[in-house]
Protein 1
Amino acid sequence: MLTATASQLLAAEVPDYKRQPGVAGKITSVGSDTMANLMTFWSQEFKQLYPQVKFQIQASGSSTAPPALVEGTATLGPMSRELKPSEIRDFVKKHGYPPLVLRVAMDAIAIFVERQNPLPGMTLQEVDATFSTTRYCGGGEPVTQWQQLGIADPDYPSPIRLFGRNSVSGTYGLFKIMALCEGDFRNAVNEQPGSASVVLSVASSKGAMGYAAYGYKTAGVRALPLGETRDTLIPLTMDTVRDESYPFSRFLYLVINKKPGEPLPTLEREFLRFVLSKQGQQQVRRDGYFPVREDVLLRQRRLLDN
């Protein structure tokens, strides 16, 4: 872990973004719904610096980013999960080298309940037993009633109404790995087209629970602490996400086509430098996500410059 002095030193080394001459053109972004607002914030701020730049942002899910990059119909591929080996193989087959993957923000997959819900938290086995049919994470009985989680109020709505993302979503795929130990979802999980829809559904139903990107949290929901046991629950905070102690912490990525040994075109290079600058990371905070640690951010800038 970084000492306070080392952290302050790294923070001081993260550069401000400085406007460069000759930046114009169009950036097309195809990918993550989770990162839709973040891409909008970045693009709006960047356009204030460079009015001649245009953006087209299509937020149709992380799984749509790799094919768009392979076919050359996207400049950038925002993704809320890592690339699959098959996606990397497809890219290499077309271009002869792998894509460049940059970690540009941090997020967490939250388990949301309605804000008045008294549940103090859940164990990881309880999460699996609630959302999956397979219970590969070691859970026993399937959890379908609030009483099974310790809510004794007999009037509390049961069974638990479940909400989650659809299958093209990176959040869906990552939750399947992290929370279900690569198991199968229950048919009872109501799939939604975006994290905002999940949060709205949970907020408007006393007996609902759903998983979604934490950046879409509203005042109507509460993110549950999670842990191996009820005695070791970890709350979802900036510190627990950035040090990755919260169980469902994750990076958010921008994937690009960069030929090894060759510089990126000016527009793409400057936009990514902006994203990886102090100003770019301020937009991450603005959208409710978490800036990457300073040491990680500096490594991403070196990847970009190399």
Protein 2
Amino acid sequence: MVNTMHARRHVARLIAVAAGALAAGALALPGAASAAPVSYSSGQLAAASDAVERTGVAGIAWHTDAATGRVVVTADSSVSDAALAKIRQSSGAVRIERTAGVFSPLLSAGAAIYGGSYRCSLGFNVVSGSTYYFLTAGHCGAVASTWYTNSSHATLIGSNVGYTFPGSDYALVRYSNTSLSHPGGFTVADAYVGENVTRTGSTTGTHTGKVTALNATVRYSGSPGGTVTGLIQTTVCAEGGDSGGPLYDGNKALGLTSGGSGNCTSGGTTFFQPARAAASHFGVTIY
């Protein structure tokens, strides 16, 4: 015969254990299933990207992450909570991440290639027929038309053939000083997510990092400001004056430094104009 009092105590213990497990979220009931994450179509993601663009919020960059099916928005430190709320309300397909510093074109007054009161960095040497040029950032071309090797403007390099900024961020400068050498050693290539890359600039020298996104759009704050599309997003640090410098992987020419946030002490997020798009736009060959 079963001891009734013992059975009641046993049942009470089972109920207590089950209740505790439910409170901790540790007990799965038979047939229960967690809600599946919302899946967005390519058309919905494109619409979400357009919606982010229409918010007009400055200090953000965004790209479509096909792996997670979300439009990833990276917001710099200048973006307010109210602006973030505006972005979130634009679409349910948006995921927001924060980064330190402020997104801006990396202009500065200082060393390397000098134009007016600014300095930038030479990107890749290029050629068309028997004429030699170099690529740099378009926002550099927007603020200076003639470039020199020193801040006193004593040694001429050459003048702009053309530039595009905003929208894209590239400029072409023709060598007019025949006494200057223009070595090569690169072949144009396309970056891929996860690639280990290197960047060189006149302010901070050489630094490395990884590609985190392709076809990113960034809306820069400050002057010159504006929205640039089709960029390579990376973890490589950069600072003012590094603009236009090369991004590469071995002898593969990948991009030109456009802008970003942070610095080479604390790190940051940096964007690059793909080198292939720049060379194609001007009809020149990276060598």
Protein 3
Amino acid sequence: MKRSNNWFPFGCGEETPGADKMFIFHYAGGSSSAFRHWAAHRRPVACIPVELPGRGTRVSESCLEHIDELMERLLPELAAAIADAPFYLYGHSMGAAIAFEAACRLRSEWGLRPEKLFVAGRHAPHRPDPSSFRIEMGDDALIAELRRLNGTPQEVLDNEELLRFLLPTIRSDYRLHESCRYRGQKLDVPLVAHAGKLDFEAGPETMAHWRDATDKAFELKAFEGDHFFVQRLGEDYVSELLRDATYRLRA
């Protein structure tokens, strides 16, 4: 039976008792529904998309725009959902920054150590952001950024009324992302970085710098596609990700 929790709208892995758990953090402008199909099947690792306040199923709530406030509210929920199970953290784009911060704080503040951290489509925390876009540039620049990243459906970009409705939440995500600050944190868990070969700001060369974010094993994998290769590769990507999760990296 699924336990109701607004942070985990598709369940906390109750349908696969005894399975490891993978908590999944979405990209800016997305929501847990982007990974709903990951949670829709029985898998060797239970996939648990995380819903942030103000997004998706929590659209009526206020968005959180600072990483410290998010961690204060999120970590107790994560700790309860982990419930002594082996667990992994996965994040795409903005979600990679959130997953890294959660991994660091779960370890230092809660004594909880993920089996691995998976990151995709985002520069390493100690490296400068290669994108020239900053949220203070305004709506027109934000829309141009969404077009450049090629992840927002064209019908949304062409619908001015719908786009203006969505922009406040997207702006909040970018503010949340820009609030992430590197303070010298270094993990003691294996880290796997996934890159789209055509992702011009988070391609394999950029993602390789994640090796300096951990003292343990590191692996870099490149996939066909651009920034949103994760979504476009579909089930093939999910299957490879979960195989990587259960494969033990050499330290």
Protein 4
Amino acid sequence: MVDSRILQTQAALAEAVLDLAARTPIAKLGVAELTRRAGINRATFYDHYSSPGELLATVLGEDLERMRDDYLRGRREGGSPQEVLRDGIDATVRHVEERRDIYYRALVEAPDAELISMLTSSFEQSCLVILAETVDPPLPRAKARIIARFVGAGLVGGVTAGLQDPGLDRAALVETLSESFPRWWY
């Protein structure tokens, strides 16, 4: 069982980094400002994370992991593959919209390699799990990794393009991203 103080520290850090990253590029966010906002000391911060970027990537990555679990649950429960894919992409786009200031800053305004890498990796890992569970016979490992990396980077590119086009609504972005998947995906 996790100590409640650790959970409180993690919650305070998550709230602080999300708030501050919405206003400041993560590369310019200092540990002192972050720890002051979270009400903890620097040593405690460094017990858990090496940088504000790592903390932000962890917090956003946890949200993305929950969405991947929901997507996989939908696939396992026999939902229409096209609808499950669309729902998964919609959840991802909603997540980006809810954190628009952070993602716009990190993907468009001042591209942040750590966050871009985390997002690509998260999508890639989701793809690997999905491919392992849904493709029969299983793909060779190298082929699955190439496909997963391609799809992950493509999703990051699509989300970035969506952020750059203020006239594009969520439904249009979700539809476009869904249509971009290869037909054999579902």
